[in-house]
Amino acid sequence: MENPPPQLKITLIGGGHLAEGLLSGLIPATPTLPLLNLKDVTVTARRPERAAQLTERYSQLTVTTNNKDDRIWKVSSREMETAGREFLHVVFICTKPKDLEGVCAELHGVIGQQRKPPTVVTMAPGISVAQLEAWLPRGVLVVRSLPNTPMFVGQGATALFPNHNVSAAQLGQVSRVYRTVTPTVVVLKDEDHINIVGATCGNGMAEGDARDLVTQTCIGSGVLARKTVEKSLSQLKSDVCVPGGSTIVAMNHLEVNGWGDHTAIALEKSTAKNRDMGK
To answer: What's the pTM?
Structure first.
């Protein structure tokens, strides 16, 4: 008799903007993920008032202010083992790069105590697999990921880079979760390419991967702009140009070098040509 397929368990460490983006697709997609029950999804938040907001908004999930809560690391796994079920635990660390080392230090002990280690997925640009392996227990399963903003309208694009400890089945579960909010999920062969994805989704990558990521980014940006009617296009741009990030550096470079003026002139020339063609 074959063993039943493993149950999926998901934890989101840091209940901020990124976590809510993932939840926006994960919750309605649960019927298409038969091995996931929403009672096995946990979100953590640092501040009690934020935890209260998340509890009110997502009453079907477990919400806690404690990243080492037994409900994350002990209760569900014991129940599954008692029932003869294996489980795959995927821990998404949804924090900013500057906070990642501290979160890893906090989780080091509980991850090391697990009979079956979780797959740890980060969303922080610039933090390498080598750094994560140094901050977490030996043999850790790590996947670097880089989703983009259109995930909030279910049209994002995500790049993944796993370390050597992650199996195809474990990586497949991470991909399935991301596909609930990002139709395009690409697994990269070179870790440095995740930095290229963050900048341009282009040079140096396999042509097919780059094309998939670029085209989905364009589609997703358009859908996001159309659906987010409560925000101006300028505000949407500001949302991704966070201080200290890579996007704002690129935008500042363009503005200093007259990108806005050159774009306006190009549009004026195109408009003039359209008028001339009718003469």
So the answer is: 0.80
